[in-house]
Amino acid sequence: MYKKADSDVNKVRQRVYEIINFVNAVYKPLNTFIALTGLEIWTDSDKIVVTAPAGETLDKFTSWRNDVLMKRQRHDNAHLITGIDFDGATVGLAFIGTLCSGHSTGVIQDHNPLAIAVGATLSHEMGHNLGMNHDSSSCICTDSTCIMAAALSYNIPRQFSSCSVGSLEQYLNSRNPECLLNKPQRIELIQPAVCGNGFLETGEECDCGSVTVTDASYMCRPKHDECDLPEYCTGDSNVCPEDVFVVNGLPCKNGNSYCYNGQCPRREDQCIKMWGANAVVASDWCYSQNKRGLSYAYCKRPTNDQYIGCQTEDIMCGKLFCENGNDDPNYGRFVMINKCKATFYSDRDNDFGQVDTGTKCGEEKVCSQNQCVSLEVAYKATNCSAKCKGHGVCNHKLECTCEPGWLPPDCNRQAGSGLSKSRFYLTPLLYHYQSRIHHTCNYTSSSPRYTLRVVSSISIPNTFPRILVPVTSQLKFLDLIKSLLCIIVPETPHI
What range(s) does the Disintegrin domain occupy (predicted)? Predict the structure, then answer.
């Protein structure tokens, strides 16, 4: 890409700004702001071997990001934009649902002279990182095509479908990706200043996003389920307080599980997530296989090649076993024993096949570090709410979240008026960027709820790439053990 721009760094920067501006416009209706906090242009040589097979390039870029980039630049998500012509009709590749992990990456081919076309591809691959799958025929898309369509067309997509919106909401609620908690500082942003984006950037006296601080009576973040707590504006801050949830161990789903960090984890939901809507939890006999200590049946995995079987009392906290559902899992490879289906992975740090922490494994017991332990051992919070004096509830930090009008830390003192200025929290992705600073900006649009820090790297192509001519091609999947990877390919243009 650097050579395509006549080895002109300023041209590369301008093109990347145009790409990111389009991505931001696409994500804005989802109340998500894409903050470009890093741009590395490889001007002397590529830092990895960039090859035509997109899967190989993605793996190498992911390793480089973890070994080098993460150590010097804080970010949530990284993408490589390259001038290399990927094999076949592939123009982008990314891991699914891996935000805030070591695989929060993607690779993009600079495949079109129009920056917005490349921006659509980047939006698509970032959508995969955020848990979105390809659109199906049942998805509602008001345009001729949407961002997560399985194939690119000559009509550049500019919006997400109903399915994508639902997938993102489900991903944020279920995964609670912690890396999106903090709003970047102005010195971290490398894009030109934009009035009204809620960030005070170089050259701006202010950037209020919206223009006033909301009263303390305003619920800035309602609770989204029985394991959550609502948060209220404090009246003297422009930020909705940090996210907190009900105390871990509170019964949920009619006593079928216990709350854990704002979620109600159940094997039933985990099986559906892994195998699709018709999947169900497998029999106890299937879970007894966890005593064997194999790659698809174990409790502990100290190294990539070492598998330790479960003790009898812990078998429900080892590998997740399901029945029915789709023929292939959404993540990883799988094995079937009779009707018992389980998944396995080569990388223990990205093993999505274990029963989730916090899942109920017996009466008053939950899974913790792949062991079935009592609630008291797991959370040490049995009598936590007693200290809130009847005017608050204990949250997952073992602190009191007080009712409006009562003061922390024990909710035993009434405020003079209005809401307590105490710590009301919720999901780490919701923000209300407002300010009491005298403002000179005339921008009045609403502020983003979510902020995603993105770092982009630009590679030098070994040869000048050609513009792809769209060809008919079926959707391809690379069956890698690490994770499911999605490739988007162009479709035959409509006449």
Answer: 163-248
Q: Does 275 share its domain with 366?
A: yes
For residue 280, give the H/E element and its range. Answer: strand 280-281
372 plus 397 within the same structural domain: no
Residue 403's pLDDT is what?
80
Q: Which two structure tokens, joined as six digits, stand for 32?
A: 């998500």
Annotated binding-site members: 124, 128, 134
Q: Which of 18, 40, 56, 125 is the catalytic position? A: 125
For residues 79 and 39, what is the distance between their CA atoms, to the nearest angstrom? 10
Q: Do both 32 and 135 map to the same domain? A: yes
- 475 plus 402 within the same structural domain: no
**Binding site as annotated, residues for Zn(2+):** 124, 128, 134
> Is 364 an annotated catalytic residue?
no
Reading the block at residue 194, the tokens are 């934009």
Strand 322-323 relative to strand 280-281, pairing:
antiparallel
pLDDT at 458: 55
What domain range includes position 16?
A: 9-165+449-490
Among residues 101, 125, 96, the alpha carbon closest in space to that of 111 is found at 125
Residues of the chain where predicted confidence (pLDDT) is lower than 70: 1-6, 154, 181-182, 184-188, 190-217, 237-239, 381-383, 415-495
